[in-house]
Amino acid sequence: EVAKAQEKAREASKGAKKAAGDLLKLDVHDISALEKMANVPKTDDSPKFGRENIHGVVKAIYHGGKFPESTKEIPEGEQIGMILDRTNFYAEQGGQEYDTGRILIDDGPELDVQNVQVYAGYVMHTGHMKYGAFKLGDEVLCQYSEERRQSLRNNHTGTHILNFALREVLGDEINQRGSLVAEEKLRFDFSHKTGCSDDELAKIEDLCTSYIRQNSEVYATDVPLATARNLEGVRAVFGETYPDPVRVVSIGVSIEDLLEDPKRPEWRQVSIEFCGGTHVKNTTEIKDLVILEESGIAKGIRRIVAVTGAAAHRVQREAEEWEGRVALLERMEYSGVKEGKTKEGQHELGKAEIAAV
Hints:
This is alanine--tRNA ligase. The chain is α+β, with helices and mostly antiparallel strands. The chain has 8 helices and 13 strands. The chain folds into 2 domains: about 140 residues, Elongation Factor Tu (Ef-tu), domain 3, CATH 2.40.30; about 160 residues, Threonyl-trna Synthetase, Chain A, domain 2 (Threonyl-tRNA Synthetase, Chain A, domain 2), CATH 3.30.980.10. Helix 3 packs across helix 4 and helix 7 runs antiparallel to helix 8. The longest helix has 25 residues. About 5% of the residues have low confidence.
């Protein structure tokens, strides 16, 4: 029976991945219906900032534009949405991608969570049933993928460090214009009139590396918005509307110390940002940050793509390997073989992910 269930789960997973582009979403009518359900509160997602598995209660199930009381009658392999009273899953927002994982009852049903979105305060976990069936009122265990979450933490804290380094190297006029915190990379858009030189990119990357290797603790606390805006050196996204209180993330100095003397000039040497994302506890978790590319995406807007952790080590190794290949080609006498290998190398290099500096 277990083997059959696992085989069905594998087939369902294939179907779910094919339909990944057709993500189950709540529209305004669905949200209105939820708001009329007295027993379905807005989701408490504060546990997302912790690292523990938690228990929650199934408050709503969504499928086919309806809210059934159970998953029992839902065909195998079809996407379903599940809303709990509380969750430790991070819903996609603020440029950070969603968590994946599973929601289950021990020795019972299990939902393979492949996406998490928030709609007007309701966090919906989307995926397919691996086996069994859930019903409203079930107490469930929430387990996010630690591997994916760690990569997201690394990249999000790395984004803050990159933002700090950009201001230090390019000047105070640098402002964030957007970002993406994905599992495999980070992307940071910022205002700057010209492209970065190789020397500037090297300085930016070196400063990021130096910050990471300071073994700095990462602090995060909700602070009244007016108080937070008064902190010396604080960074916020231009045009963004922030909640009150706002979550302040500081790398290397506790929020309590910042608030004791908010205008202290030394705080400009600290990464301080408004942020609702997940972060590492200490910068040593990040290991390294390597810039892959810097480019222009619009007039006065530049973009940096970078990687952290194991991915950073991988692209560094690949860069070293390419240096060796190029050196070998340069030592070859000119011939048709050399020309062919050069063209082949240029083609491969165009597709390779290697360090830009």
